[in-house]
Amino acid sequence: MNTELTGIIATFLLTLVIAIPLGMYLAKVFAGEKVWTDFLKPLESGIYKLSGINIKEQMNWKQQMKALMTINLLWLVYGFFVLIFQDKLPFNPDGNPGMTPDLAFNTIISFVANCNLQHYSGESGVSYLSQQYVLMFLQFVSAATGIAAAIVLFKAFRDKTTTELGNFWEFFVKAITRLLLPLSIVVALILTFNGTPSSYEGKDQFISMQGDTVNVSRGPAAQMIAIKHLGTNGGGYFGVNSAHPFENPSYFTNMVELIAQVIIPIAMVIAFGFFIRRKKLGWTIFGVMTIGLFMLLIPMLSSELGGSPALAKMGISQTTGAMEGKEVRFGPAASAYWATVTTIISTGSVNSMHDSTMPMSGTWQLLGMMINSFYGGCGVGLLNYFIYLIVAVFISGLMVGRTPEFLGHKVEAREIKIAAIITLLSPFLILAGTAIASYVFTNYGDAGWAVQPKNWLNNPGFHGFSEMLYEVTSSNANNGSGFEGLGDNNIFWNLLTGVIIFLGRFLPIIGPIAIAGLLGAKKFIPESAGTLRTDTKTFALMTFAVIIVLNALSYFPALALGPIAEYFTMLK
Amino acid sequence: MKKYIIQSIRLTVVLIVLLCVVYPISVAFMGKMSKGNGGGEKIIKNGKTVGYALLGQSFTKPEYFWGRPSAAGYNAAGSAGSNKGPSNPDYLKDVQSRIDTLLKYNPGIKKSDIPADMVTASGSGLDPNISEAGAAIQVARVAKARKIDEQKVKELVAMNTLKPFMGLFGPSSVNVLKLNLALDEL
Fold first, then answer.
1. pTM for the full model?
2. What is the DSSP-derived secondary structure letter of residue A114?
């Protein structure tokens, strides 16, 4: 078997070896049971004390969401001003300029929302202060926000009937001290000892072997790259993200970064099963998500390893596969695996340029982001999946003619309405956003923005449409990767994607928590022979069907106009 | 509500100290013990920095092995891929002209010997590596330009080839910068 394929198989197996025990550990941490990291308790008590937080205070779901929104809005204000004034603030050894208000608006929403869509380039667009005190800070806390929100949902189903869902601040702080920070230290050290810069030295200059003067951007990158993956953020230190030899020096670091970005999303699913004392449900969800991963991965591998049909016609050798936009040290197989993982779990970091992947690969990347719950982002992946679960429960209930129930709680009109709104939100934002962009591109090509609409696209034809569709889909999914050929740093894209990211982040957090809060407060109905069990293979299949049907109906026309049309034109 | 605002502000300040001061500085401190002292490993020749081990450089002279096409011109102040789509006609013209250039400067090779990595731009624009096939098509040219034996050049290529990780995982690759340094030292 070739070493490129053994490489990705080994990466996936190692991921499971780490993620599954991590999930069991997380269930214990958040249930307050004894774990070996309890030596960190004094640190946590210190944080609570300095912040004036009493973790014994129980919150209902509304209070949880108020706390979540308050602190998130605070970060928006704080970060916005630092980014605008970064040129006047300290730690700017390369003398980078302050951001324009629209770029700062986009960037700050993007990082608060765990999206990390970047319309600036790391080397020239931000100071060291912004990189660490705003962007890296938000990579930690936005991931912790997602995890804490998921734990609130866990709490709603642990006990039979309850409105007391624990303390938001406790979940949030523990997500950092027991999970994100310790793992980040480990990953950052692995990276720095394999060549990633971690010191605060500024740009360097040298004369190359052929006598060219070359400038080298550096800085404390390893620290940020660790959390960008663990927290499924994806915002890179350098412009080209993990394709940059400093961000991702070798095949080994590539494996480490790939593992780092998937372990927490998988662990959260396993933790869910253990936490609510229904392990089988956790494993069932994990099974559906894993099948989803392979259904996107295998066709993507086949189109990338097959190479470009256009280059094949020119008569060159493509023994390893398509290489445009890819790095030799990773090769097409590890790049395709990365492209799959980063789109299904909302990381959005890249180790190859998605804009240059084969047309059908683009389809699978887009579909991964549209579904957005095969593992999904830190915490939020499970929340997205929960909505599909509720819809599946409802449809199954209709099919067998009973009142739908989920884990012993009746699912009624109010919950279904919320689930329906959240389900419709994604297609609405993605399709309307792409439509507006296409309209502006065709009708207002000469608008006097930083990049004129007629010059937005880096590629003509169907591929150009895919660039716009990808940008909007990535924003809604809080993914953050891009078809980076798109000229996106102008007021139109900054505002459009900023708004989409915000709505695509917070409504799909609040919706599922509201449903869980409402369900958790209802009377518990013991299981009987007539109960629709949600941890069976039949129900797993049902959920899978719901996911496929909803997404196919919503997005097939848009995909057909972009990557699928390009695929067929290349067959000629 | 007011309570949440105050708690949010205080918690944010505490976490900034932990996550933006304590964490990165302790990693930077330990990073000082790494090969490049945490600033990226440099390659130094006669007391002068001639490059970074991880970053590719532009090579155009016939006596050097060439790296991959770069959308960033190998200037590590920035980084960039071409972001050209697979069906873009301009892009396909670029590829064709790269093929023609390789054929012109490496007489004796066939089109079907040229591996894809030598005619496509890398993701970062700073890719330090080429494939083994990419090195193989250049051996004759380099040997002729330097007036040395082809066998000697082949040996150097083999010495600068990085095998798959642990012999099992991922592709093999040739580091162009290290290979060219080794050539100069002959």
1. 0.95
2. T
